[in-house]
Batch of 4 targets.
Target 1
Amino acid sequence: MYGVWHEWVIWLGCALLMGAAIKLMDDALDVNFDLERGRRTLAHQLGRAALPYALVPAVIAVALDPSLALSVFFGSYAVGMFTTWRDQLPSHLPGYVEIALALGLSACLVGWRLALWGVAIMAVVDWLDDVMDLTGDTKSGQTNLAARIGFAETLLLTLVALCVAVLTNAALTAVVLVAVTALTIAAELTTKHLWKASDDDRGIGV
């Protein structure tokens, strides 16, 4: 019994740390959009130090559980480029090539099944966030999946991704969802609101 609980604690710690690293990096990239919505995130408060600080929890996460950490990282990397898959990226490669490279690396390092789970669970997290932030992102000029294909369609894709995640690894799916909930609360506590958000800014009533 102790061994089982120890494994779950390791998974949760790894998911929290890698999730925190991904969230910090994502907020650093979106800092201008967040400011336009009246949100001063931790990434803005850290400034240029945000990315180096993000490396610390990421490295610890890899040390705790390399397979879980890598699958989540590469899954997040791939999903983050889904809406811009045809765009030319700073690497001078189109988005779909980098998506393929991320998925290929993940499959080589952790196996196809865990790589598929990583993409599916990160799609669930990312697309749910797109649905919740649809109105606010549109107002700030940030394009997300829900704005491109529609609210209902994004929810349907999220449900499909959740089914894939559960079927490939139900235990890790539950752990990541718990970690995402905790990270969402932590993000809210560390974000300074420059003005009171309306219901529309929170994506309510879409």
Target 2
Amino acid sequence: MDLSIVILNYKNKNLAKELLKNLVELNLPYQHEIIVVDNASYDGIKEIVEEKFPQVKFIQSHKNGGFAYGNNLGIKQAQGKYIMIMNPDLAILSDAIDILYKYMEDNIDVALAGPRLINADKSVQSSCTTLPDWRLPMYRRTSLGDTKAGRRWLDKYLMKNLDHYKNNYVPALFGACLIFRSDALDKVGLLDERYFMYLEDLDWSRRFWQNGYKVAYVGKAEIIHLHRRQSAAQGLIKTLFSKTARNHIISFVKYLLKFKGQKLPRIS
């Protein structure tokens, strides 16, 4: 098996249906499989897969264990040399998967890669980052990010100066769409299920670097991501009452504690 594609669904059956239709119509030129994991949403995606896409494997999780937990269910069942994890809110209107696949074939030192994600209006999303320090939730999740110091810090964190139309090694990638070598998991391990939501991708990227692999942003591969941030910058009080913002902060504390005292990996 050349490629396994894992799609994690949580109350997004219509988006998942469109992505599945999109993938089938691509007629990928290598042996591949598609796996859909439903993270205990029971929103009708099982029936859609069975009726419309019988060639697709379906996994029903009986609990919503979060992003890492759900994706790991699919990864454990995947048979491909390469595995891609995808959010349902993607649209692939180009040869991005072929570009990513060929990039991995041609760059054997890279074990984790991600495409250039764009909005529906073609503007570039920030989907690669530096490895952040303790200021991340303060500037990312509160109005302090609108200050001069906050904007300067966020621009560096989100790698705004990077040419996002070229391929580059990067410290970390966002998890909306990632491709990786399945055999690298023997050293790196699966996504860390201690994170319910947020920071799993940052943690994983860091572990790929720590284990001697390179992480790459493939700017030549373009995928539309119909993403809406669930907890945008806001006042401190509102942040404390926002469930998604609290999840982000809790995950970041777990991340800091996990890597406390460890040197940052060398990115090159």
Target 3
Amino acid sequence: MRRLILLRHTKSDWPNGMVDRDRPLAKRGRRAAPLMGRVLIERDFVPDKVLVSTAQRTVETWALASAGLIRFPPATPEPRIYEAAPHVLANVIRETSDEVRTLLLVGHNPGIEALAYDLIAEGQADLRQRLSRKYPTGGLAVIDCAIDRWTQLARGCGTLVAFVAPCDLDPEAE
């Protein structure tokens, strides 16, 4: 069994003249990111490895989510996550060492959402339905994959264990 955690960056801003990769977090995003980090700790969804897109908003999301929480490993920047299609994300995951039992990716839509849809075949019906309606900024999906090695990652191998959005924790944070 392997656990995959997919975190979509929190709410970003788009200042005039700024390229997409350099977009910072908006005030709501800065408020939401620490909430998502606390969810990981409180529910014992602590990753062994963290891969983060190199976009500014994902780097900021993880920095704020993990700030002061010593149980998290240092993040590894992964440029292939930026604007990646689900099959690219799956290939990045398949390269993960077998020593890693729980992997967290911090990335973007539509790739993160599409990957979750591809992997999830089981799980609590209301959580699956909620995820299918919207994968909001800051959304966090925890998927247990019925595989022994990351190289075995395949469509339908996962069970949705949890799906949490910032608005579940603070209505002003989404």
Target 4
Amino acid sequence: MSLRSSDLLLDARNVELLRLLCGDPRMAISELARKVGMSAPATRERIRRLEEGQLIKGYRLDLDPRALGFPVAAFVRIRPMPGKLPKISELAQRMPQVTECHRVTGEDCFILKIHFESLDGLDRILDQFLAFGQTTTSLVQSTPVPPRGLPLPGERRR
């Protein structure tokens, strides 16, 4: 039986498992089990249910783009030409430098986060999108709030 994510969040141990995994996604099952006061098999089963309930959607490795040779980042808004909307998402999916692509409301239909080796690479990438619409680019100067998870139940900020 598949539980809804809202049902899974009613259990304090599930929330604690999520809190621990957010802090250290590589924590061993045995250590997680010890910290929540459960057996390792029971803990493993709870994690499986949290994954099935889509509360845990996989595990990601957060690599530093600068260390990989991509020190420049930009957000690009794209306003597609008529009939070209699907072409933009197809192109974004094929480009490894595009790390995020969001379909949004408003005059611009897409917001992309793109990483570059240098400013010289900006034109090469933007030119490909310009074939399908108008772009507006904002270079990232700094990131005072890096990507982070949302608060878990009991941690809601006001």
